[in-house]
Amino acid sequence: MADQNQKEKAEVAILNPLNRTVFYSIEFPGYVNPGSVQKCVQRLGGLQNISDTFRRGLKIDLPLKENDPFAHPAAGQTVATQNLVLRIVKRRRRKQQVERDGSEDHMRDRGSSHSGTSTKQIEGVFTAEVVGISQKTMRFRNPIDFQYRPDMNDPVVQLRQAMMRLDSKFILSYRIPDDEEDFTLTPEEQERRGAASSSNLRITPAPMFTRYDMPMNYK
Questions:
Q1: Scanning 40, 81, 133, 172, which has the fewest C-beta atoms within 10 Å of its C-beta?
Q2: Three-state SS for 53?
Q3: Residues 18-44: pLDDT tens digits?
């Protein structure tokens, strides 16, 4: 009976309406600091490309290597969410000087000079505030396609790089080289090049090894 009376006397929680500001969030698969935000946005194609991806619900590519057409990008997609966006503020720790008269009520700043003072460290305080709701989130949770880096001295690879930088002189002067039938390296040549395999087929990899972002469940 006493417990029931205590429950009736318990205070009702105060209702705080949430801020209805809408946010879009990106789960970037890497380390981001205030100085690298602009670079991360550029890797995703700029603000316009990010905005179009959120608006149309399309996939987006994140190049792992800048200006490298042979590096397969990480694929991201947008999903509907209802996550809360928090603003977290941390008050820095600061040291204050306490008078040595046995009382801690008289405090002075660290910069003040007083012969009878001692230092006391005050712990930092965290405060959290809900500033809005994230209704869409861009995630990069799919496995990345198999990576293969060809020989950068190969004529076909050099032609591909010239096409990316719009080098018309190199493209016009390009000629298909004569194919030498040296498809297997000798042990000496393999050691000199530092190649992991004796194969010298010079086969340019496909633009994409798999069409599926996620493994299939065959059960």
A1: 172
A2: helix
A3: 888 999 999 998 888 888 899 999 999
